[in-house]
Design goal:
It is a single chain. By secondary structure, this protein is mostly helical. It contains eight helices and two strands, in the order ααββαααααα. Strands 1-2 form a two-stranded antiparallel ribbon. Helix 2 packs antiparallel against helix 3 and helix 2 packs antiparallel against helix 5. The longest helix is centred in the last third of the chain and has 35 residues. It is elongated and about 65 Å long. This is Synaptogyrin. It comes from Zosterops borbonicus. Belongs to the synaptogyrin family.
């Protein structure tokens, strides 16, 4: 368990709204959230027009409903993804598990890169269909500004989502370095796989330091002198 990995503080700390808002990934998510609203909002409100002699409305992008549906779908899902990861960013410092933080950062990298790709496809698709549109299909040029806004902010969204993927990758690199010690290090005294140290008694410890010989008892000297008798001359 490690509370200071992958670019966040230790788990259990108080939530700081000002620090959260100033984070680069928070700013990019908010900008991407606004861009997605502009894209799908422009298409929903003014992306369908009809001729004077028609009642049915058609997509402003070359009357291709797939183009409008794509822009709306990607915009709405990107809107929801931004809200989801904003909530995850707010909760991220409370995650104490290094593995769970790693999964969250990796999902951020994958999702951000995926949405950058979808916005790139959407920009190319909408631009192509807008260029292929016929003036007679929209003689009053209704919704032209909305169509151009959807194309423009689709283009901008590519870079905001690429930026989110890049920041997530930086957090992954930072987390991999900061979590290396906590994941790989193990106290030898806590390692159950290590064999127990052999038991050594006091005698062995004494022999290891040096051999100690006890001096002979005092009675030994008396025993040696008992056989000697003095002679009187």
């Amino acid at each position: 368990m490690d509370g200071g990995a992958f670019g966040a503080g230790k788990a259990g700390g108080a939530f700081d709204p000002q620090a959260f808002i100033r984070q680069p990934q928070t700013i990019l998510r908010f900008v991407s959230w606004v861009f997605s609203i502009v894209v799908f909002g422009s298409i929903v409100n003014e992306g369908y027009v009809n001729r004077v002699d028609e009642l049915e409305e058609h997509c402003i992008f070359n009357r291709n409903h797939n183009a409008c549906n794509y822009g709306i779908t990607v915009g709405v899902l990107a809107f929801l993804s931004c809200l989801l990861y904003l909530a995850l960013d707010a909760y991220f410092p409370q995650i104490s598990s290094v593995k769970d933080r790693k999964k969250a950062v990796l999902s951020d990298i994958g999702v951000s890169a995926f949405w950058a790709f979808l916005w790139f496809v959407g920009f190319c698709f909408l631009t192509n269909q807008w260029q292929a549109s016929k003036p007679e299909d929209n003689p009053l040029n209704e919704g032209g500004d909305a169509a151009r806004a959807a194309i423009t902010f689709s283009f901008f969204s590519i870079f905001t989502w690429v930026g989110q993927a890049f920041l997530a990758y930086q957090r992954f690199q930072l987390g991999a370095d900061s979590a290396l010690f906590s994941q790989d290090y193990m106290d030898p005294s806590q390692d159950s796989s290590m064999p127990y140290a052999p038991y050594t008694n006091e005698e062995d410890a004494t022999d290891a330091v040096g051999t100690y010989q006890q001096p002979p008892p005092a009675d030994a000297f008396d025993t040696e002198t008992q056989g000697y008798q003095t002679q009187n001359y």
